[in-house]
Amino acid sequence: MTSTSEPQAQVLQALTTPQDVDQFLKDYPLAAIFKAGTCHKTMQGFGVIETFLQRHDLPIGFIRVVDWRPASNHVTELTGITHHSPQFILFRDGKPQYEVNNWDITPEALAPVFSQHVPQRSGAAQVQTEGGVEPYRQLMQAYLDGQLSDWAFQDQYVTLFRDDASLRSQREFDLLSRLFGDPDAYHGGLHQLGAPQERGDLRARVQDILNQLG
């Protein structure tokens, strides 16, 4: 009989105080700290990292910068690295080895870093992200039920997505970002996104994404 190994658990630890940061770096000689901001850049950046965690064994400590600012400031003091959010810093023996920030957190930037510095896993990883999709499900269902116009739905959806700083998987990010493209366009006014139906039948696209979210 062929045995199948259980998925390996990913270390994803909240670092809420300077003491948490110090203990995390002491417990894990090779580790990374991810500073999470307050908008969809955090969701996008962590989604990229999550794809590498499926194949590589790297403990991650994350800091909600607005909520746990002393911990974030402590990382800046330890490393001398200018603060950004989102921000990914790779550590070895408590010393920073590599950092990448904001929209530069891409597969192209991280691939050589993980390949050269982070060991591969012997099996698949189970990365327990924190992002729930229920607010999106409820909004999409309300639209499909006729409670919102196309424009009202686009307005509420883009606002929800733009302000979402959850630590999500790449799959969730790809699904949620599929409807309306770049949410940064919303800062200049909803008209910059164009009419909701410009990308094809909106109801059909919403139903398809809702089905895939499960």
The parts where pLDDT drops under 50 for at least 5 residues are: none
Mean pLDDT figure: 89
Global Rg: 19 Å
CATH fold description of the largest domain:
Glutaredoxin
Give a structural overview:
The chain is of the alpha/beta class. The chain has 2 domains: 8-126, Glutaredoxin (3-Layer(aba) Sandwich); 134-213, no CATH class. It has 8 helices and 7 strands; from the N terminus they run E-E-H-E-H-E-H-E-E-H-E-H-H-H-H. It has helices at 18-27, 40-53, 69-79, 107-117, 134-144, 150-162, 170-176, 202-213, and strands at residues 8-9, 12-14, 30-36, 60-64, 87-92, 95-101, 125-126. The strands form 2 sheets. It has a 5-stranded mixed β-sheet, sandwiched between helices. The longest helix is centred in the first third of the chain and has 14 residues, at 40-53. The mean pLDDT is 89.
